[in-house]
Amino acid sequence: MSDINSLLGGGNQTQTDLLVQSYLQTQQPKLNRIQNKKSELEAKNSFFTALNTRINAIVTQIDKFQANDFDKQFGVKKVASTGADYVTATADGDASVGTNNVKVNRLASSDSLVSSRVNSADDFGSFSGTFEFTVEVNGDSRTLSVELDDSETYQQAMQKIADAVNAEDDFKLSASVVKDTSSTARLSFNTSELGEDNKIIFSNGAGNLLANIGLDEGVLNPNSSTRVAFDSTNAGYRKANIIDLNSEAEINGITVIRSTNVLEDVINGFKFNLNKVHDSGDEAETLKADIDVEGVVSLLQPLLDAYNSALALVNNNKTIRRGDASANSLYSSLRSLPSTRVTGLDSGAPDYLTVLGIKPDSAGNLKVSDKKILEEVLKDNPQKIADVFNSPDGFVSKLENIVSSLKGDTGIIKSKKASLVQQIESYDKRYDQLKLRIDTQSNNLRKQYENILGTYLTAQTQYSSFSQFSTGF
């Protein structure tokens, strides 16, 4: 006689599983429809996330183009030097095409003040208490104090002076104790900036602290144009004449002196970088300035790349584009932008990107396809290129109008993403709820079939008992 477990342990269990699986298969399309819709929404959300990145890249480029004086960068010149080891230069939009001759006679240097040589271990002298001294660099005067207790050696006292200088915040002066031999030392002050403007001026103060190491303003003349230079034992400045702290160069035959090695105010639009001093018999270097086509291409390319990236994203997601009005509108606007005329310019001036040699390929990607055309416009007037991009009706302004409704916290992209996230969450809940109902129903079917088998087993048992009883008569 069979029980319910033995029945389910055989082929009937398989029948039960088949019954449940058959039911689950009939319900699976319902789950698939929800999952497919969710996947569609997730793909759309990913698309708008990527589009937001592309739009932000465009906005970054728009901000760069709309910055003050950006138009001057279209006129930036390239400068070639016959001796870049000695002098190089850059030239902005105000610089003229042509040559300049430069010879470097002297480089600007920092100022240095050095104490007398002293025996490091010798007693510093009778100095006990607080001692003040004053140092000044480029109008920044600091009164510093040092605590001594009459026990210091020269090495220790000079280190305290150096520490007082180095403890100052935002001071263009540093100090160090240098052991020039194993038994002697000197205190050195050095400026962090170059030139006569940053010369070191000092004052002993009432205690003559600095004078004890040879730094006496009455002797070294720190306020004079001709100071005392130090030597192997005596205190003084590294350069006696303060003018020798400045750079000196002959530019187009004219002597130019500055407190720096970067000369930005000599010739309009040029910045000269002095790198190395020429020998007295050397010829001046020739620096030739010319229009920089590659520089302008490099200036434009990031904007074109940002435009191309956004266009390609929308174009490559045709299904989403066709089903979304904002994406389709963006694609149409971007695609037609290069062929749109720039209005408001002077008669005869370039008013299309194509007139600058910038053309779209078959996919609509913009690139400078004819640099010779761009070069000719540069030679004529770099501002004409700037106007095509930066005038009130220029490419940049039009592009800004296209993306303005998409960007930011109140833009279409953020609104769409918020809506999509809500829809995705809603479909997640619908899926979970339907899955729960299906699982519950499948369990109910399993129990119903098992109940039927149980009833069958009971009936079979009763029939068997009845048959045995009848045979006994």
Describe the structure.
By secondary structure, the protein is of the alpha+beta class. The protein folds into 3 domains: 230 residues; 78 residues, no CATH class; 135 residues, Immunoglobulin-like (Sandwich), CATH 2.60.40. The chain has 11 helices and 18 strands. The radius of gyration is 43 Å and the shape is flat. The two termini are 22 Å apart. The mean pLDDT is 92.
SSE run: HHEEEEEEEHEEEHEEEEEEHHHEEHHHH
User: Could you describe the largest sheet, including whether it forms a barrel?
Assistant: 5 strands, antiparallel
Strand content: 15-25%
For the largest beta sheet, what order do the strands appear in spatially?
1-16-3-12-13
Per DSSP E runs of 2 or more residues, the count of β-strands stands at 18
> How big is the Rg?
43 Å
Query: What integer is the average pLDDT?
Result: 92
Oligomer: single chain
The helix/strand class is alpha+beta
General shape = flat
Q: Indicate the low-confidence ranges by residue numbers.
A: none
User: N-to-C terminal Cα separation, in Å?
Assistant: 22 Å
Total number of distinct structural domains: 3
